[in-house]
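I'll show a record.
***
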Amino acid sequence: MNKILFLFLLFSYSISAQNFKKTDSIVKTYPRFSKVENLANRIEKDFSSDTEKVRAAFFG
């Protein structure tokens, strides 16, 4: 029973995990912004989904 539960938890985690390699690689090219508004505008321009925008803001 414990093995089945472990496999279920492992499988459900892998389904919910997201790949942010593309988002991270774009943000790595950003210059250092002197104003947070400039960073926010760039993120708004470069990303369409809210999830990507949050990741970009966190990573940036």
Notes: The helical segments are 2-16, 21-28, 36-46, 50-59. The chain has four helices and no strands. The mean pLDDT is 82.
